[in-house]
Structures are given as structure tokens and as C-alpha cells.
Amino acid sequence: MGKYATWLACGAVAAALVLVGVGLDRVLGSGFALSLAGLALAAFYLSGTFGATTPFFGRVASTSSEPGHFALTFDDGPDPRHTPAIGRLLAVRSHRATFFVLGVHARKYPEILVQLAADGHELASHGEDHRLLAFAPPSTVRRQLAATEAAVRAATGRAPAPLFRAPHGVRSPWLSRTAARCGYRVCAWHGSVFDTAQPGVTRVVERTCRLLRPGSIVLLHDGDASGRLGSRRQTLAALPAILDEAERCGLRSVPLSSLLRP
């Protein structure tokens, strides 16, 4: 399901919960008690679906605040226009990142995955095709994970790190449990950079640098999952200044899996 259709459908579910409460109050003469209960359920549902770090629909992986270390992560690649340059720049500066790759892109550009792995970066799963999973049944979640795992294994000879970041962080009540049964931990991020909106290099740097602290997970993008071939040149251009600030703060990016709590 696409982004806008998911938003509308989730909004409809939340509205239905509220309306059921209102209707029951009118039928039963219970004042506003059930209306408020419906409102609370709607808020719970929307927070669990769209709140990437909320525990309502399952616990997401958390990091330890290990001194001197944080995790740069990149979504939606690999993209030959940006991913190789990002990976190489990080490696030259002795930083390592986690790339949450899409299976459809991994199959198209396997040589980029090979280079990322050779440079010491971590490969993880962003699903097969970036569809939002708010209403996807467990079987679809399993297929998304299996397809991406097969693509990474075919390219590099080994499975990705058992980490999964749901597209846009959108989850269903059963997504985290399904991923866990497949051996994956669901990962989120801290704060928001919104580099895909191309706000300008300066803003990408400023927004990212505000997030730099031990144990932080920074979300950036090296590819475009929309099919519109959006540029990530601003992200690439911002990276040297981001690394400069990280190093000034005594921080170095490491693979996300090395920071996760058990």
C-alpha cells in the first residue's frame, strides 16, 4: 500500500474507533465515557502505527550510550549515483555506517553491496520494495524480509545483519513479532533530518549535528524509493561537515548492531 493510501486508511480506522465510542454513548446513555475510550484507542493505534519508537506495537531495538560512538544509517539504496561515494567517504574517514537496503535495488546493483561490505559497512534490511506495512499480513512481512535477505546473500555471499527498518517506520500490531520470528530486530532512529525533502546542504548539516551524541541513531538516505530518481546529492555534500562535527565532539560512527542493547 502506498504512503497516501496508508495515511487515509489509518485515519479511517482511527475515526471509526472514535465514532463507535460516540455511537455507543448515545445508545447506552453513558455520557462521554465510551467516546473518550474510542479517542484513546484511536490515539493508541495511530501512535503505534506511525510512532517509529513507540512500544505500543512491539519493542524496537535500543542503543547503549557508549562513549564516543553513534550510528549513521542510510535508507533506500543502493543507488549508483550516491551510495558508492558515501560509502567510500565514510571509510576514508574511518567511520562505518549501516545501510538499510531495498531488495529491489540490491538485486539491480549487487556490486555496490560488495563494495560497501569490503569497506566495513553493515548491510541491513529495509524490505523488498518500500511498501508500507500497516495493513500487510504476516506472510507479506515474511516475504519482504526473505526477498531482501536473498538479494544481499546473492551479492555478498552472506546474509544481512538481522536488523529491519520498516519503510517510514510504519508498523502493524504484528510486524515486530513477525520480524522477530524471522530472526530480525526492528530498528528506528532518533530525531528527524528530512534530507529527502532536499532542504539544502546547510540545513541537512544543522539538523544532523543536533542529533550527534553517544548512542544516537541518525537516519539519512542514499537512495530514492519513490521511483522518481530523487537526488541525494545534498546528503552526500553535507557528509564531510557532519563528520567534522562528529569528530570535534569525539564521536565516530560504528555499525548499528554494535550499539544495540541485548
Short structural summary:
This protein is an alpha/beta fold. Helix content is 46%, strand content 10%.
What does this structure look like?
With 262 residues, the chain is of the alpha/beta class. The chain has two domains: 3-50; 69-258, TIM Barrel (Alpha-Beta Barrel), CATH 3.20.20.370. The chain is built from nine helices and seven strands. Strands 1, 2, 3, 6 and 7 form a five-stranded parallel beta sheet that branches. A two-stranded parallel ribbon has the order 4-5. The longest helix has 26 residues, at 3-28. The radius of gyration is 20 Å and the shape is globular. The model has no long low-confidence stretch (mean pLDDT 96).
Provide keyphrases for this structure:
single chain; 262 residues; alpha/beta; TIM Barrel; 2 domains; five-stranded parallel β-sheet; two-stranded parallel ribbon; 9 helices; 7 strands; globular
